[in-house]
Amino acid sequence: MISKTKRHLTLAIAAAALTFSLPGAHAQAPRVIKISHQFPAATSEDGDFRDRLVRRFAAEVEKQTKGSLKFEIYPGSSLMKTNSQIGALRKSALDMSLVPLAYGGGEIPAVNLTLMPTLVTSYEQGMRWKNAPVGKELDRILAEKNIKILTWVWQAGGIASTKKPVVVPEDAKGLKFRGGSKEMDQMLKGAGAAVTGMPSSEIYSAMQSGVLDAALTSSTSLISFRLHEFTKFVTTARQKSFWFMFEPLLISKSLYDSLTPEQQKIVSEVGASLEQFGVDESKKDDLRMADVYAKAGAKVSDMDDKAFAAWRAVAEQTAFKDFAENIKGGRELLDMALSVK
């Protein structure tokens, strides 16, 4: 007869063999990462490129990690309010977001630099920040706040108005205006506008109800948020723009740090690989926005060097001055940015 001890051993070996024979029995469950943004979901290749960028990132990372990382994407502020995203990243209450960094200017004043009027004048100049001292300093500042940049995205912007064309500073006088950042608002105030703050996703209802007469936002948002439905005038970014916004794909640093070294490598490399896509799509939208508004019957204007110089003079006396004098390390940070040509 088989002893009781031998019988238990036999059963244990059989159970172990059965366990190892089951497919995926010891496979680790995939880690699910949530990505939030405020922009409309893209239903085609003509849809908002920011949503498409996020989806490309998610698909490629999932592919390269063989499914160990999976993503849930929440467009249209469906996961949380737009202005809550930066704070949520800081507190590790949100995994990832593609968001205008200047929206976090109240919590991290230094990032107001990333929507400073007239500071960045081209996509190429903006992208050169990444490897310049100003980009390294932004990385350091954000790391201290538990935030890491994965994809650098810059967007030029234009001006939609229901009252009159806005091309030079004098045109802004008396208008109820949305600027998009503290420093942009200061320049508009310097030009005589009455400023109102809100995320780009709220511009439509504000203009429709008369709370706003005019708004600055990216070319892509001018299209995606359908402001052409009632806007009578638009100034494009086809030639010059004083409005270049940094709108990166961000990840909570604590989440990034918890990934395996191989996952970190994949996430970082995929994020960087999408930067040219961001530049190309932004440039396309600068041109497409003019066509969308023209077809809707709006008067389309462009900004030339003379108009840009007039705005720069106002910006230097308002936004530049405030940032240098009232933000900790502001003068040094501004000088770093100005040194990038």
Question: Can you walk me through this structure?
Answer:
The protein has about 350 residues and is of the alpha/beta class. The protein has a single domain, classed as Bacterial extracellular solute-binding protein, family 7 (D-Maltodextrin-Binding Protein, domain 2, 3-Layer(aba) Sandwich), CATH 3.40.190.170. About 45% of the residues lie in helices and about 15% in strands. Helix 2 packs antiparallel against helix 10, helix 6 crosses helix 12 and helix 12 packs antiparallel against helix 13. Strands 5, 6, 7, 8, 9, 10 and 12 form a seven-stranded mixed sheet that branches. The radius of gyration is 24 Å and the shape is globular. The protein contains 13 helices and twelve strands.
CATH architecture grouping: 3-Layer(aba) Sandwich
How many independent structural domains? 1
Mean pLDDT: 92
Number of helices: 13
CATH superfamily: Bacterial extracellular solute-binding protein, family 7
Overall outline = globular
Instruction: Give unreliable regions as ranges.
Output: 4-26
Question: Percent of residues in helical segments?
Answer: 40-55%
Number of strands: 12
- Might you state the CATH topology name? D-Maltodextrin-Binding Protein, domain 2
- Name of the level-1 CATH class: Alpha Beta
End-to-end separation in angstroms reads: 88 Å
Q: What is the ordering of alpha helices and beta strands?
A: HEHEHEHHEEEHEHEHEEEHHHEHH
Q: For the report, how would you describe the main beta sheet? A: 7 strands, mixed
Beta content: 5-15%
Rg over C-alpha atoms, rounded to the nearest angstrom: 24 Å
The chain-level structural class is alpha/beta
GO biological process, one term: C4-dicarboxylate transport
Protein name: C4-dicarboxylate ABC transporter
Pfam families: DctP
Signal peptide: 1-27
